[in-house]
Amino acid sequence: MIENLHLIIDVCLLAFLVLIAFAAMKVTNLFVATMLFGIFSFVTALLFLDLDAVDVAFTEAAVGAGFSTVLMLAALRLSGAVENAKHRHSALGLFIVVLTGAALIYGTSDFPIMGDANAPVQLHLAPEFIALTQEKIDIPNVVTAVLASFRGYDTFGETVVIFSAGVAVLLLLGMGHVEPKNEPEQSTVLWVVVKPFIALILIFGLYVQFHGDFGAGGGFQAGVIFASGIILYSLVFGEGYARKVVPSKILPRLAALGVLIYGVTGLASLLSDKPFLDYNALSSNPIAGQHMGIILVEAGVGLAVFSTVLLIFYSFSGVNHNE
Amino acid sequence: MIIEILSDMCLLFGGIFTLTGAIGLLRLPNFFTRLHAASVTESLAAPLLIVGIILDTGFTLDSAKLVLIIIIMVVANPTITHALCRAAAHGGVNPDMDTKNNEISQSKTETEISAKELK
Amino acid sequence: MIAAAIIALLITLALTLIRAFLGPNIYDQILAVNSFGTKTVLLIVVGGHALGWFSYVDIALMYALVNFVGTLAVMRFFEQYNPQGEQS
Predict the structure, then answer these.
(1) Considering its fold, how many domains does chain C have in total?
(2) What is the CB-side half-sphere exposure of residue C53 using CA atoms within 13 A?
(3) B86 lies within 8 A of chain A by CB
(4) Is A300 in the same domain as A151?
(5) What is the pTM of this model?
(6) Neighbors of chain B with 3 or more C-beta pairs under 8 Å
């Protein structure tokens, strides 16, 4: 029964993906298309859950269904929301697409079966990481161990990439300036209900940050969730008041601080004559050193992601606000 | 044993109400009627399903978090309904039902026709 | 019985998706998408318990919050785009 359930859920969800993709292609109202892409992310995250990839599902839902949708909507508010449908049917284009698709499908016949334990990718370093996590780092979540400790340098690069994205948006758009004003017709129900919600979201963000070692979570997801709380405040009470709560001047500095925390943790081990980002050097007991290193590094990542996400939202929503 | 039966009943009724809400969402004629169907059944089905799972799980940290999910859904869902209703009313969606789709007036016509045939 | 609940949820997801395509105006589609999100949360809870997904409760919690934020975002930005309330 359980095997059949897995199969039924997988088939249904994949069918939904195809249906949602067709619908997103067919609708001409771009608001609706953006929402459909949001639920596309939801379904993809469900599929990831079914494949036992919990952290990926978490990040996909937080970023794909939450933040990415909000950003696209903020951009659509400024441009036209109806697609300029130019009906040009091109037989050559269709032929090329079909040919490429067929070539790709033919190429996948060389892949190992999905989930095969003897696929080359599973035999290279993965067994070593899984075995060493228990012995050297001693945290239950292997994904966090690989992300923050074994592959800490890659994650440092990712954090710097996120920071650069924030810098690029700042260079292109700037954060603008929005005056707080009383929105004329707001609903009291929404005001009253949203306030405890924001508190809940912020606490949940902190919970995800600090429980990344034990369950799904970590710095990236926590940063996005925390920023979603402030975004919710800005949606209901107005961008002006949100900029009083979290001033826009402080965000680039916080992002830089996050990257700095990560780098300084690595430098601290250089000062003890060990390689960069080797957390064993942070304490006399290597396992305690690893734990401390992971907490510091995740804090840096969380801070950098939170500031960058909020900065990008402020930039998008601050453009031409008074139109 | 009783807890198992209770959990099964909750899951069964939760599933039934969810399906009813979806059928209502598809078949009802006007936006506001569909809104009512979707939100009322959802506010009922979601706690029932989650309570069914809580009874199956027992008293652990997971079930405390599931209670939190129930509270969130019971609070968030009517709020979204309210906001959507307000937005639609401001946006100009017509609450009167279309006479083409109004099933009450159609069946009235049918009774008039059958009454005439009886005469 | 859990299997029946999962099948019911999957059918509901399909039906809600149909309304999201069909809906004659955008508010129908917003309603359908929000409903889809809530049913996804329920599917995670019920399916996670039945199939033994790891740490499904945290993800369900987060989905519920993200769904709320996403729907409010759509309504807010659509209102800002269409302040006179023209039907699109």
Answers:
(1) 1
(2) 30
(3) yes
(4) yes
(5) 0.88
(6) A, C
In this complex, do C62 and A49 lie within 8 Å of one another by their Cβ atoms? no
The answer to whether residues A161 and A298 belong to one domain is: yes
Counted domains in chain A? 2
C86 lies in some domain = no
Q: Which residue range(s) make up the domain with A38?
A: 1-83
What six digits make up the tokens of A236?
A: 């209901």
- Out of A56, A83, A110, pick the residue that ends a domain: A83
Q: State pLDDT tens for residues A196-252.
A: 999 999 999 999 999 888 888 888 999 999 999 999 999 888 888 888 889 989 999
Same-domain check for residues A170 and A224: yes
Does the residue A107 lie in any domain? no
Range of the domain at C49: 2-81
Question: Minimal Cα distance from C15: which residue of A?
Answer: A16
* C-alpha to C-alpha distances, A121 to A1, A17, A112, A211, C2, nearest whole angstrom: 30, 27, 10, 28, 35
Question: Which phi and psi (to 5°) does residue A29 adopt?
Answer: -85, 120
DSSP A190-253: HHHHHHHHHHHHHHHHHHHHHTTTTSS--HHHHHHHHHHHHHHHHHHH-HHHHHHHS-TTHHHH
Alpha helices in chain A (DSSP H): 2-26, 30-50, 54-59, 68-76, 91-107, 120-123, 126-132, 142-145, 152-172, 188-210, 219-237, 239-245, 250-270, 286-318
Element (H, E) at B91: helix B61-91
pLDDT digits (tens, 9 = 90+) for C36-68: 999 999 999 999 998 888 889 999 999 999 999
Chains in contact with chain A (at least 3 beta-carbon pairs closer than 8 A): B, C
Asked if residue C52 is part of any domain, the answer here is: yes
> Could you tell me if A68 and A159 lie in one domain?
no
Alpha-carbon gap, residue B90 to A183, rounded angstroms: 15
C6: in domain? yes
Mutation site, C12, C41, C54, C59, interface A, largest A CB count within 10 A? C59
3-state secondary structure string across C19-80: HHHHCCCHHHHHHHHHHHHHHHHHHHHHHHHHHCCCCHHHHHHHHHHHHHHHHHHHHHHHHH
Contact A43, A15 (CB under 8 A): no
The DSSP code for A322 is T
pLDDT at C69: 93
In a domain, C45, yes or no: yes
